[in-house]
Amino acid sequence: MIFKRPPLPHEGDLRLDPEVRAGIDARRAQPFSVEAMVAQMRDGTRSVAGRVLVFVITLAAAVICTLPFLFLSGAELGVTLSAFLNGSLGSQFAFAETLVQMIPLLIAGMAVAISFHGGLFNMGVEGQLIFGGLVAGIIGAEVEAPPLILSVLVLLGGVAGGALAALVPALLKAYRGVHEVVTTIMMNFVATYFAIYAVAPAGPFVAATQPSATEKIPRDARLPTIWDGTRLHAGVIIALVAVLGLWWLLYRTPLGFRIRLMGKNAGAARASGVSVKRTIITTLLISGGFGGLAGAVQVLGVYGRFFDAFSAGYGWDAIAVALLAALSPFALIISAFFFAMLDSGAVQMQAVAGVSREMVGVVSGLVVAFVAIQPWLLHGLDRMRARRRTRREAGAPVTLTDTGDAT
Amino acid sequence: MSDFFTIALFASALHLAVPIILPMLGGLLCERSGVINIGLEGMMLGGAFGAVAFSYVTGNPWLGLLGAVGTGLLSGVILATMSVLLRGDQVIGATAINLVGAGLTAALVPIIWGIDGTTPSVPKVPTPELPFVGQIPLVGPLLAELSAIDLVAFALVGAVWWVLMRTDMGLRLRACGESAAAADAAGIDVTRVRFIAVTLSGVLAALGGAYLSIVTLDLFQASMTQGRGFLALAAMVFGKWRVGPAFLVCLGFGLADAIALRAQIFTHDLPHDLLFALPYVLALVALATFVGRATGPADVGKPFRRA
Questions:
Q1: B168 contact A CB<8A
Q2: How far is B177 from chain A (nearest CA, A)?
């Protein structure tokens, strides 16, 4: 198979949107001007530089908005910063711990990303993660099999569990038209309470010696540690392979094309012969599968058993991870690593600088907020640029006329 | 069985329903005006925290309630700015409210009180007993368990229904949710109507949170709402975006909660953790079977922009 893409449009032969044309011109003329950067950001989905710019600006805005609360808690900026860097990157151990934190965030972030690609809001990743972890823990504790086969079974069981938790919202969305936001959120609670029940003192899968947990998975079947002296386990390889797989699925397979087409325009997808119902179900099941995989990897790699409070809200932070990465599979690695740094640095920040760990949640919330208003920000920057241009062309200051709003 | 289904059970069902009813009303107003609001949970937490903080600072629980209204206004205005004024994605904006609401309230507790997790007790809103209602036949004993504040909450249900279905204002609001373009053509300022509806939903949700923190209890605890904002959302969908049915669903959820709590005391062989999941399972089953196609207002979720 040969993958050959058509060359990118050059000037002249293609009709280009005037805004895009202006952006290209600005970038050619003065690559480091404000105009060029704004154009870069607006075309963010197309160029790597634009994406990096959007990523950095979103993150910076969120962190700056968190600063007042840092001062409120009486922390000094320098101390906080050094505690954060020490705690997340300062030593071999800290770095490995950051990577350990990154694994569930990355896999769960992929779950969110693929559903958003399909225009579906899977808010139930937390529940899928818990259910996947539960199924993984049960299989690991109950099934007798050679170690390697058992690990594979546990991981597959996690994927199946996550997909099962996503099945109900998927069917309801496809056949009853119920908005998936509400149903996936409801499934979060069903999964959480079911998991608590399963390992409750009288529950069916509780360990004999440890309440609120399943029996331990045999040590040989767990994911091996790949960095001696730290907790870093082979899950990081699984996560990175999954990133490749997600990219391949989204951009190199017909199914991925259908998913993205449905996300951009469900009507157009239907008109061109895509079964939207089937694509909705497939997308949500894959998304749930990723969520379940995140739980299974956590169970198999870190704890060696399922216990009812094993997720520190990874499913929710995953939304911020996916949105910060603008849903791009490879950018997910960077954004998951950043949030993992926050998670592992938070311990040190609390101990040394007295900053509450909950601030991590605030930062991820603010990231989500800034992503929500990104279209407006880009639009506003565009308008500013248009106004400047008019001013320059007219040679005189312009009054506040609405230039680019009436589109 | 008869000592299980007592007046106390139904009274506690009503008490447990109130903090679901208030955010449900807020969510309903918001969605009927065309804005998805899954941020109710975060708004409730903000209200619960605001109420306790103000009650602690001023020593007056009524000012605490006022503080909850203030935080509700704040969270409502922030969401309205994001999703109505700036036309950002409504689901993403509301998710941000949830994340920031949960994180910030939990982070502010150690800043104000110096301890993690749960705050010390603060003055709580007095719940005066109602005079004379005990003598009413049949429902008297049940009503006697309620306080004036519960009645205000129930009265709000009627008020919201009346405003939404029987006034000019309500018609305008519903028009914005069904077809923003048509409403705009008819001379309604869609942006303003939606802005006000979202802000109001923030206030109602915050009052629901405040009911939990300084009426039922007298303290704030990190993520103390335990998903009631989402339950309110489920009730609204279950009730097909109509005030009456959604109110009944809320009462049902309250009863389910009360039964689960009571079962915990009465029996040990019942899986009460599963009972807590019951409202959600019921809602999902209902959506799958007899509710029919649950479709909300036609223009819900679509940012509006004048052509």
A1: no
A2: 16
Instruction: Give yes or no for a contact between A265 and A99, defined as CB atoms under 8 angstroms apart.
Output: no
Contact yes or no for B271 and A203 at CB 8 A: yes
φ and ψ at B8, to 5 degrees?
Answer: -60, -35
Are A182 and B234 in contact (CB < 8 Å)? Answer: yes
pLDDT band at A36 (very low <50, low <70, confident <90, very high): confident
Identify the structural domains of chain B with CATH numbers, from first to last: 7-119+140-288 (1.10.3470.10)
DSSP B116: S
Q: Mean pLDDT of successive 10-residue segments in chain B (307 residues)?
A: 72 90 95 93 95 92 93 96 90 93 90 84 78 67 77 92 94 93 93 95 96 90 88 88 93 88 74 81 80 72 79
Residue B235 vs residues A166, A309, B95, B170, B278: alpha-carbon distances, Å:
20, 27, 19, 21, 13
Q: How close, in Å, is residue A255 to chain B by CA atoms?
A: 25
Name the token pair of B294.
């649950």
Q: Is the dihedral of CA B177, B180, B183, B184 positive or negative?
A: positive
Please name the residue of chain A whose CA is at the shortest distance from the CA of residue B104: A362
User: B108 with B46: CB under 8 angstroms?
Assistant: no
- CB nearest A177 (choices: B83, B107, B295): B295
Domain ranges of chain A: 98-330
Interface test with B, best of A181, A184, A357, A371 (most B CBs within 10 A): A181
Contact criterion met (CB below 8 Å) for B295 and A177: yes
Which residue has 């979060």 as its token pair?
A: A188
Query: Do B20 and B231 touch, CB atoms closer than 8 A?
Result: yes
Burial of A260 (0-12, 13-18, 19+ CB in 10 A): middle
**DSSP string covering A143-204:** ----HHHHHHHHHHHHHHHHHHHHHHHHHIIIII---HHHHHHHHHHHHHHHHHHHTSTTST
pLDDT digit string, tens, across residues A160-196: 999 999 999 999 999 888 888 889 999 999 999 999 9
Mutate to test the interface with A, among B38, B81, B89, B228 (most CBs of A within 10 A): B89
> Contact A189/B227, CB-based, under 8 Å?
yes
The shortest C-alpha distance from A281 to chain B (Å) reads 15
Q: What is the DSSP letter of A30?
A: -
pLDDT tens track for A208-254 = 888 888 888 888 888 888 888 888 999 999 999 999 999 999 999 99
